[in-house]
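Ex. 9. Protein: TetR family transcriptional regulator.
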Amino acid sequence: MGMRVEDKRTVPAEASGERRPERPERAGRPKRDREATERRILDAARDLFGEHGYDGVTVREIAARAEANVALVNRYFGSKAALFGEVLTGESVIRGVIAGDPAGLPRRLAEHFVRQIDQRSATAMSRMLDRSAGQPEVKKILLRYLEDVIVQPIIAQLEGPDARARALLASTIIMGGGPVRRLFGLDDLRAADPAEVTDRLTAMFTAALAPPVRPEA
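Predicted structure tokens for TetR family transcriptional regulator:
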């Protein structure tokens, strides 16, 4: 009787009941890939919205500029309107201007306003707003932006009654620069003494943000 020869064929680990050694994962790679893709999409959207306005750009064009799949734009941001809102919030520096010592808020807002006047070329945000104003979807986004990025942070800095009304009054000064820029340009304001303009604006913001004076009964 011949000797039995053992079968030397490899048995899959799953079939043998043995656990296959886990291959080391590349830590953080998927997250980094997603973050890089999101950044390219946001940059492409900012540029295209600035060049053509909200209605003049499609999600497909944004994806092509970002070298990304259209499905990823929708997966990461949900819609073109939501993407516009993300770009708008990301380009804004006003939240950082508002944060800080409440007593210095009027001066910080005035200095921010003057810096915007002194911009020799339109910022990405101003181009986006100039080319997209009036669109119904954009109006909703701007209302949310105004509420979340400007009004509520200002309210958090205020004490006393009527905080929302005071925050909205200051917001009117902040946001009112856009229509003035579009209709009249900024040459006259740029020609004025920046220190004087800053002082005047500080007085305006101080008055807007001050608690109301109640007449004594």
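Check your answer against this statement. Residues 92-209 form a domain with the Tetracycline Repressor; domain 2 fold (CATH 1.10.357).
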